[in-house]
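Q: I have two molecules that I believe assemble together. Could you output structure tokens for the complex as a whole instead of separate predictions?
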Amino acid sequence: MILLPLFAAVLGFVIVYVWRLSIPMVYSSYVSVGILAGLDSVIGGTRSALWHRFDSAVFVSGFFTNIVLASLLVYAGDRLGVELYLPAIVALGVRIFYNVGYVRRAALSRFLHRPLLPEPSEVPESFSAPPAP
Amino acid sequence: MKDSEITERMQSAAAARSRKDWVFPISLAALILGMLLALQFGTQKTAGEFGGLKRADLLAQMLASEKTRSEALEAEVNKSRKEKDEYAQAATKEKEILSLLNEENVRYRMALGLTPVRGSGIVVRLQDSELAQVAGESAELFLIHDYDLQPLVNELRAAGAEAISVNKERITGTTAIRCVGPVVNINGKGVAAPYEIRAIGSPQDLKGALEIKEGVLDRLRAARFPVTVEVKQDVYVPAIMVTPKFKYAKASKEAEPQ
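A: Yes, here they are, computed for all two components at once.
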């Protein structure tokens, strides 16, 4: 069940690879940034699933929006003569590393039977601040 | 106690629901992601192989259209040439002076490469190297290039060749020998291995010029290109297909202006 996304990714890869589909070289930078955005969404989705905050509507809309947005950003950068794929790659890369970190922590807590701590950013004010008298 | 129990149950129920929910959307996204990855993978691989564009298709199309164009132009050339010959013949019939002019015309046409010529000379046959491609070495090393043909033609001219052709392409005063992709372009036409270079002139002089020690043929043979030189009493050298046009140059009767 947990391995299903992995199988799906392999399946998708094999389907397209066997069909020998490819896109013109000029568009390859858009696709590569799109891939990065999609990867970020999938890892982010996994993270929220592990913290029981997953919302499929948010996830699916975010997945497609991010891919399209990232590709559009790079396209706009190409038109304007600014290499906008660099900030896109940096931003997405940083997010991917953060999200992988959270997924790793959740996985560790699961396999080592440690309590799953709430995400630092998700700690409500009331927990950290002293209760009002 | 009771309240907290209820919230706990609600939380675990919500957790169970959400756990069930996430697998399918994420799998869908992963499927698409895998497809995109393969797409990009294929593109990068193709880029390595062909330089990105769908060149095979494109080139085939270009070749077809160029071929039809070239055929049409050749037909036109032949037609004009025939007309010209008819005029020349008519002229010789009319007056003797014109016959003299015509003789002169023939000589100039020979010099310009407008008429096919024949006479004693040599035929050089040249092929791409038969050496198996060594791993890691570029195939370029085993092909005949423009810079292999140029010194050969140059050497033949220096040895007094009166007419030279490379694979049916006459070498004239306006001929360029130049690599375009995998073929050599001569007179704007692609020629490819095996190369047959014909030259009319003194066979001994021509052969000697090529066979000289450390000369053109020695260098080609050192690179293991199969080369043969044949002396023939009757070598046929074809005419240039397209008459050179003078768009910028004009005849000048004066000496060089000061």
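A: One point stands out. The CA atoms of residues 7 and 13 of chain A lie 10 Å apart.
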